[in-house]
Amino acid sequence: YWMDQMEIFVSSTIDYLTLHKLWSDQGGPIVLAQIENELGDTDIKSPQEDHVIQNADGTYATQQDYASWCGALAQRLQPNVVWTMCNGLTANNETINTCNGNSDCWSNWIVQHGQSNLIQVTQPALWTEVEEGFQIWGDDPSNPSDYFWSRDVTSITNDVMRWFARGGSHINHYMFWGGYNRERMSAGGIMNAYSLEAPLCPNGQRHYPKFDHLRLCHSLLAEIAQVLLNADSALNKGRAVKYKIANGSDDNSTWMVSTTEQRMFVYSNHDTDVIFVENDAAHSVLVEIPIDNEKKTKQQKKRLQQQQDSSRGDVMEIRSNSVVALVNGQIRFDSSHIDPQFLLYRRIITPLGSSSSEATSSTKIKLKWSSWAEPTTISQSNHQLSALDKRPFEQAKLAQKSRVSSDYTWYETTFSFPTRISSIDSSSSPSSILTNAKISIDTQRSNALTVYIDGIFVGAGDNHKHREGNITITVDLGNITAVAQEGWHNGHDHNISILSESLGYHNLIGRWGASTKVKEKGITGSVTLSGIENLDGDKITQELVDGRLWRSYAGLQGDQPVSLYSTTTSGNNAFTSQNTVKRQKLKNIPLYLEQELSMSSMSIKNNPTWSVAEFETPIFDPTVESLVVDLTYGRGHLWLNDHDLGRFWNITQEGKEVSSVSPDTYSQRYYNLPHDWLRHDGRQNVLKLFNTFGFGGGDDVFLSCIRILLTEMKEVTNDMDGDIVPHA
Q1: pLDDT tens per residue across span 4-22
Q2: Count H helices, E strands: the chain?
Q3: CB atoms near residue 360 (< 10 Å)
Q4: I want to staple 459 with a disulfide (CB 3.0 to 4.6 A). Which of 399, 475, 523, 586 is the partner?
């Protein structure tokens, strides 16, 4: 089944590219294509469940069989392009093995001729992922939970220069553009903005100084490409250099010859010498560079920290752990040196609109919000669209069977307190039922759970790591109290609802901690309610997956078309639900439900809420400016004109407290409003949000946390307002 679906996906992608004539043999720009094998990286011979593929006839195929099948598939569907496969098993007869990694690509992989033993033997050296990081919700950038947060640009260019010095033919940055995870695209725990620290910010603006330093690096590589490509590879041909430790003075101490920490790689043709000089030492050194004076250009650029010694030729200083590239004696690029001009850029933020009544002179947009509640119990009208069973229905399977595309699933059952606890004198004041109450829910990693009792929010928990597998999330409910009222009696049933929110699926199969088993979400095991009974202090534990009926509902219930609340949008422009199954329309539910609450200490303001605002597209230059939404409260999804912009979350970076002084405290607070998705025909734009945590402190607090901003990168010469772009 997997291979059938894989072939359908690859075939449809190739058909699309062919239809639009994007392949190089059609005159298009695509000269390389990659069919990626994420199944595994070793050839397993024994039929172990997590490491092999089982054929229809019951026999087992190895991972190498699968890799070879992928390569044959690509060649059969598009034979006129060069196909690659990265890191791991490769279909050697159909594809080129490529490297993904950091310094290991130039220090190890290329030296060993790749994993196929064909690199720089019969195939070129291609580096398909110069790893530069991605971001996970709530991570500490200095100590991320998985992968890494980002890399500074001097480290990146240091690796790039060393790769080409050893005969590398190609690199691809991972990522060059930060990108966004729209709709439900994000893998487990990964943020809406995939890579905030990429050379191009997710909104397309340049990330200084990364962008310009890399621009200089690539400009040089383009200039010297013909010299490198037409010469023999210098792999394993690093030359010794004369050096001495740089101490700030030009003394006459003895020069030494290095073959370990310093070296140079030379490429030449009839009129050009290209030399890469490397320094692996933890300190700066002076090195002597041999120069062919006949090729040396007359107009030399200013050299960085360079000295002249007529008796030894050219001498220059190279900083620690860096590479300098020279062309005919000129220093054309230094991986460790960032032009000070590139450090002057700041992101300038201009507020355009909010719900605040205190409009400033710069405010051009007044956001007027309409809100309604997401039902916290599965409504009677939706019972026929839900599954009823003796245990909760696994979320992914339920969504598939319901033909619903959603990150959310509602679960619901009933429970009753023990007899002694339920016996409350109706004349008494509110009495504590359980203290230190908790609910423990078996679920999967990268999943969030929010709990409601009798329709009221009582607590939430989540796991947001880039992992998969079983986990138990325990939600602290505090002290559950009851308002004495008619109907409270021995064995009285109470409703418990759990909203499960997938935070993304693991994007790998059978490698780096991912299994080959079915990927699950939602409630996948037991649900246990516990606490201390207030009368005599006994601990009470009640298992809720014990044969009682559970109702499971895929998706959210409260999504409504714009016509129910819009005052300016006509029916022809109505905002439609993203669900693929047509839901029964719900009546507009008031924000604060008029009902007698049995859980007096909890606030309905924390119940999930839908909010919508309309605004006119402001005039701005999309080539240099970006329109963004600033969100600093809650977690959920947001839409612009029926386009799902993905998940938002006000989670802060680990170890950081919320502070208006530090705009990078939040994992992400700015969400781009794509220019192509804005309306430019006079119609109002519709911004819609679903917030799992509702209004919290009230609608005025939540909605005032939502602002529309205009951002632009500008070169500044003084301390202008605006957050500093991280110089990483």
Answers
A1: 888 999 999 999 999 999 9
A2: 8, 37
A3: 9
A4: 475
